[in-house]
Amino acid sequence: MLTLTSYTCGAFQAGKGDLVPLLNPATEEVVAQASCGGVDLAATLRFAREQGGPALRALTFAQRGELLGKLAAVIADQRDALIETSVANGGTTRGGGKFDIDGAAGTLQAYAELGKKLGDARELADGETVMIGRGAKLAGRHLWSAREGVAVFINAFNFPAWGFAEKAATALLAGMPVINKPATATAWTAAKLCELLVAANVLPAGAFQQLLGGVTPLLEALGPQDVVAFTGSSGTGTTVRSLPALLKHGVRVNVEADSLNAAVVGGGVEPGSSAWQTLLRDVVREMTEKSGQKCTATRRVIVPEALVAPLLEELSDRLGAVRVGNPANREVEVGPLATRQQRDDVHAGCARMRKHAEVAFGVERPEKLIDVPAGKGFFCGPMVFVARGETAVAEAHRDEIFGPVTTVVPYSGAAADAIALVRRGGGMLVTTVFSDEREWGAQVAKGIAPWVGRVCLVDSKSEGITLPAGMVLPDLIHGGPGRAGGGEELGGIRGVQHYLARTAFEGPRALVERLLG
Ligand code: NAP
Q1: Which of 20, 89, 99, 157 for mutating ligand 1's site (highest number of atoms within 8 Å of CB)?
Q2: Mind listing the pLDDT tens digit for each residue in 361-372?
Q3: Could you give the residue numbers annotated as active site?
Q4: Residue 27 in contact with residue 372, Cβ under 8 Å?
Q5: Number of domains the chain contains
Q6: Of 150, 221, 233, 413, which is least surrounded by CB within 10 A?
Q7: Do 172 and 140 belong together in one domain?
């Protein structure tokens, strides 16, 4: 049996005590086991703070960027090996695995380029020097400098590579050492990635460590200069951000959680138009890629009543052709959900929806599953619900169903009604506005902005230009208010600032300029 190891204090360590089995979710075979029982968490923290931090802070942004570029190259070079574990342990298709691995390499590379642009500095100015008061002598200036603690990452099961890389790229560029804790169920890819990065010997000692298994005692030992970046369900996010030790020491916590993302259609979009085709492409892709287990997947399609019938007809045609089964078979387009618990949660969500909403397409366990042993595997087929009437609409907004499931929500077509429905999501990572009328599109996009981290704009002239909403981009922020956790990652320099401390300096202008440059 393969026992996955944590990497701490410069060595790989197998956990002791109860080892957690990791499964192939298509066959339910055990593929590995992991635990971080027995790992010295206090020594892990010390190693990061005392060795990794000072070594990184001694480097300039350009030098840290160079390190990120080398990490990106390692991942790109070992892409196939990483995709293999993603298929075997994550239940992803090769396409789903690539999305994670390429996303990781691309994000690290984007921040490598940002580091190069920031150049030889170790701190960043925030705005210009400002004059204070009436006289011309007292001045103030803001400066970002590296925090002196450690950045702890807690990641969700669905992006073992990219989820780590988006956090590591920004923290390492800021000059903070990182400790990564991947979700245990899909930790094989994260463990392989860790082995590859360590073998490449790119980072200074203590800059990167990884723990497999529970990390609550580590969180309880964090202090004022540390940062926690969490991605996962809002329930766990609430537990983490409420830990007394984190509250007591004012530890900075960023939470990326659930999201009822939407595609909102109106403003004269006609069936058959280019915007309509993009809508179909995006909804099907976001439902099927990684079996809908993407934080950015489209959970609601808000569409004028008159367009519901043609939409359902075309969606059913496309989803009916999708092959579900064991992703080890390259013909398969939708694999299983990642864990038994995931499958049970998604099926329970569908059962709740069935009570109040119409099933327009799909079943929880498709009869035909390609290359799956009888009765095995944590599957859910692509499903589309239609929510008409307040009870059904309320149910559609209760919980995120984290699988290949979406709900069509019919409405009047009026911009104000579209905005009101989008807002019922309670805070989203992403929403796409499909409109062929400029005013309608502008009104809806601006009306939903305070509720959404990223708004994608599509019209019939944007063919060949737009990306599906699930594509998270290093230059744009990823995160969202409310239910989505209230956090923010990436967004170019904005993501780096999360790991920097901002200080205001005030004094005679000449002194401020002499000391701060
Ligand atoms: P989860 O069950 O909340 O677990 C997330 C992480 O938290 C895992 O590493 C888990 O470790 C850890 N964890 C569990 N209990 C903990 C505790 N008491 N203290 C500290 N850490 C703890 O979420 P998941 O099932 O992996 O991921 C699915 C969810 O993530 C979905 O709701 C999805 O929307 C969300 N997600 C959001 C984003 C985003 O960017 N907003 C991205 C991806 C996913 P173990 O695995 O060892 O239990």
Answers
A1: 157
A2: 999 999 999 999
A3: 256, 295
A4: yes
A5: 2
A6: 221
A7: yes
